[in-house]
Design brief:
The protein is an all-alpha fold. 73% of the residues lie in helices and 0% in strands. This is Protein C10.
Length: 217
């Protein structure tokens, strides 16, 4: 898929590199959010060149097409996409987290990590914290501040789990997520974590789908 090559080129543009490097001194949440925002922006810039509109609908359509290509029965095609995806994250991690992607993990290891993350995100105390995140002093927070508070709590929980699986610190947090992405076609890995994350945000009164659409609009 030519678009993947275009995105890799976009990510190496001085403007994007500068934005990524500007958050190096920030916490893992800020760095991870910036890395994903830059990836989305770089992707949006390339969409018109491959027949998709540069908006949330185009981004969704492109991601679906990319996923379909990744499921191709042609091993060579899958290998090319895998390599390009690795290049994208190598650039993002290098400039935002000052690290390289971790070595690939097996599907079994990815499933074990995902299941532990889901279990931690279903902890009774965390669920209670999310449900009460709009009460008391927190009720005075703006929507953006509230979402940031919830995101930070989720990142902290995920980080503790990832540490137990050998992914330590800010770099480990990013590396673990990238390792899980390599198994995106596995429903146990992707669907379970996505469902648990969406449910936590919903418990806190946040529509995660709407938030993503705003980023891509």
């Amino acid at each position: 898929m030519t678009s993947a090559h275009l995105i890799v080129t976009e990510l190496q543009a001085p403007a994007f590199v500068s934005v990524l490097e500007s958050v190096r001194g920030s916490d893992k949440l800020a760095k991870w959010q910036q890395a994903n925002t830059v990836l989305i922006q770089a992707t949006l810039r390339t969409l018109p060149q491959v027949g998709f509109p540069a908006n949330a609908a185009g981004l969704q359509g492109y991601n679906e097409a990319f996923a379909e290509q990744a499921r191709s029965e042609q091993q060579e095609a899958r290998a090319v996409l895998h390599g390009l995806n690795e290049q994208k994250w190598r650039i993002l991690l290098k400039h935002a987290f000052e690290c390289d992607p971790a070595p690939p993990i097996t599907r079994e290891a990815a499933r074990a990590l995902a299941i532990d993350i889901v279990d931690a995100m279903q902890d009774a105390e965390l669920l209670k914290q999310m449900a009460s995140s709009r009460t008391g002093l927190a009720a005075r927070l703006s929507d953006a501040e509230h979402q940031h508070m919830v995101s930070r709590a989720i990142v902290d929980v995920q980080s503790e789990v990832m540490k137990k699986h050998g992914f330590e610190g800010d770099a480990g947090y990013a590396q673990a997520h990238v390792c899980l992405m390599e198994h995106a076609q596995d429903a146990v890995v992707t669907a379970s974590v996505a469902a648990a994350t969406t449910a936590l945000y919903a418990r806190a009164g946040i529509d995660l789908g709407a938030a993503f659409k705003q980023i891509g609009s």
